[in-house]
Amino acid sequence: MKVSDLSVARGGVPVLSGVSFALEAGEALVLRGPNGAGKTTLLRCIAGLQAPLTGQIEGAEDRVAYAAHADGLKSMLTVRENLSFWAQVFGNVNIAQALDGYALRPLADRLAGTLSAGQKRRLGLARLLVTGRPIWVLDEPTVSLDADAVALFGSALLGHLTAGGSALMATHIDLGVDARVLDISTYRAAPDADLGASDAAFL
Amino acid sequence: MSLWQYANPVKFLALSERVQPVLWALAAVFVSVGLLWGFFGTPDDARQGSTVKIIYLHVPAALMAINAWFMMLVASLIWLIRRHHVSALAAKAAAPVGLVMTLIALVTGAIWGQPMWGTWWAWDPRLTSFLILFLFYLGYIALWQAVEDPDTAADLTSVLCLVGSVFAVLSRYAVQFWNQGLHQGTSIPVATGNRSVADVFFYPLVLAMIGFGLLFLALVVYRTGTEIRLRRTAALRARMNRGA
Amino acid sequence: MKALLLRDLRLALRAGGGFGLGLAFFLTVTMLVPFSVGPEATLLKAIAPGVLWLGALLACLLSLDRLLALDLEDGSLELLLTAPLPLEGALAIKALAHWLTTGLPLVLAAPFLGVMLQLAAPGHLWLLASLALGTPALSVIGMFGAALTVGIKRGGLLLSLLVLPLYIPTLIFGAEVARRGSAGLDASTPLLMLAGLTLAVVALMPFAAAAVLRMGLR
Amino acid sequence: MPELGKYAAEVLSAYGVSLLLLAALVGLTLLRGRAARRALEEVEAEAGRRG
């Protein structure tokens, strides 16, 4: 996947401009930057949830599995039902690996609504495994995970990378995985930049 | 030089400053001459008595109620296709004007209907259609107010206007099917010349219709200017906060 | 697609899914009608088709704000946007699930409520036919309204304000079928109109709904 | 004043209500327009000071 000269806006105001990077197969890239720098906006943009102001994203179409703060879980469905639903949506059937990878098998028949926050998060991350998509785009994946669960996530990530997948993450903790770091505060949009923001026509 | 240059908000503001005095003056002249002539200078109708004077309000208001929606439809399409901000804001600006026009048409109609048909309100297709139009205006305005991001609001209201137009036509058809009514036919078939209104009533009526049209135009231009200023204020503020 | 349909059906049927709420509402409203207009059989007989149609419409409206809002809250709507499903199809499927869990029970319950309201015997068949044909349109039009208001906090009332005018043609033709049918008149013309309207709406509205949903979530 | 006959109340109330509605519309429009104009002038002045 390749991102070139990307500018993104939050609430109609440009926050990042000129973002360029490439993400090769088997590679992990960690986004760093203070709160409000635009990490979430950039990730949403790459996941296709919002349009960039300028620039191109190549090779992301239909290859991205996105996970953000909300896990997309239905509390009245069991863990197994939640996972199989997303597996089927992405055209897969096998959820065994995902259940095992995040130690969810003992919980498989519990309703998702009865899980703890960390367990829910594990289930949300397990969803990535059933999508079969090569590029993971993750926004703070380790929120509410304990050390053991972070290790589970680390090994799942490692497995994904060694299998030729790649990952783009906004995270603050060390996952024990070789990852390039991209400090996005260097791409902060100039205060007077227009970049085709929606309100630029009124200046 | 193309007409589209005035799709630039700032250029539109400059232009609107220049044409507005003329528009307001013309609107005032036509509305007052039309209404005064109609009120003081026309005889009573043999059958309807002096109530015929209501026509100088009722028909122009009804005409503009429909035209305003039509203008909003065109403006919405221009926004969706060419994404000119002025167009979206003009549609937003026109809606309350259309709403008031619809209200005037409904109220004067009810006041007129009382002595003529013996009832304030009848579920006649035309009356019902205007009531439905009124609901569409309400929904459209409410949606504009509910959506926070202005461009998203413009998008959503434009599609609502489009879909609403289709459903408004469907409703009109359905309502006609549902009840053949007692409202008289259109009084002014402009194209054919055999009109059902005598000349004495016709000329002031035409003046009033032109006047209402001009008033609508003046109001929309002014209100569009207001919307542009509000957006410009917000845009400048956003940038100042970011610079700080 | 099938997975989405099954999930929505399953969710509706589980506790808290709201299945049966519309039906209970329909029953209650119908029961309140004689309390408000009096128990005379002739009057009830005359207004029964209209009351039943209006009740079904309101029951349908009641459940619309759950249509997309719940999926937005837990994030699955955004995840669905990144999934390899065409959004138009996904929304059509969700509308179908809504119809199966809300519209269809209303259709099936209507004849029983018709008996309570003294609906004339030939009217039952027409009522059933008109509701069966008309309620799918209510679901897809409602999906458009839900997509339009999905990003709006406390959009429930606005949703009703936007959707009700759009329901007018369906209501007019649908209730006309039931009315004519129960009066022993020929109801085929409005029935055809209703069928045509429903077909057109079912074919086109998912596209409009998907378009506004993309705009609203951007 | 023209002779309005037995329908004087209807005709006068129709004119009264309509003109009132139009006046309210124009009045609100102008009020809102003035406020927007003032707000923009303030911001423009401030932006100008900051350069």
UniProtKB/TrEMBL annotation, chain D:
Its main location: membrane. It is a single-pass membrane protein. The chain crosses the membrane at residues 12-31. It comes from the Bacteria. Keywords: Cell inner membrane, Cell membrane, Cytochrome c-type biogenesis, Membrane, Transmembrane, Transmembrane helix, Transport. InterPro entries: Haem_export_protD_CcmD (IPR007078). Coiled coil: none annotated. It holds the Pfam family CcmD. It is found in: Cell inner membrane. Required for the export of heme to the periplasm for the biogenesis of c-type cytochromes. Belongs to the CcmD/CycX/HelD family. This is Heme exporter protein D. The gene is ccmD.
